[in-house]
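Re: the request from the purification team.
They wanted to know what the chain is likely to look like in 3D before they choose a buffer screen. I agreed to run a prediction and write the result into the notebook, where they can find it.
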Amino acid sequence: MADEILTFTVDTGNGIGDVVIKLRPDLAPGHVERIKELVGEGFYDGIVFHRVIPGFMAQGGCPNGTGTGGSDKPDLKAEFNAEPHVRGVCSMARTSAPHSANSQFFICFDDATFLDRQYTVWGVVQSGMEFVDALPKGEPPRNPGKIVKAVVSAA
């Protein structure tokens, strides 16, 4: 099977650009399948990055824009793996319950290895990290950046 990539066209408020993420079904097949399913339904189009912490991560994927919601699909069984949480890694957000990931995800700005084996890594940014870096900061940001369009394609 050919590698697949996820492209988020992101509006930072100061510009629009593509964040290209290599999907890693070898690490988290169930989570990658969920991301692809949600992208195919247009779920992520228009979703904001509601939690952006400098030096840590940018979080999005909540349909409410607050971090309180997910898709209408069942929560996922954890697929924790040994892939380290370093700059550009994409991982699923969850509650304190291990099997509670649904649609929310985060992209690491910097090394966050204290999250290793506790959150499911499902991808890594290949290009466009400068657009993640440019997202408005805050919990929540006053004028949050957002995903304009999400598309999955062959690499």
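For the purification team: The mean pLDDT is 97.
Please add any questions underneath this entry.
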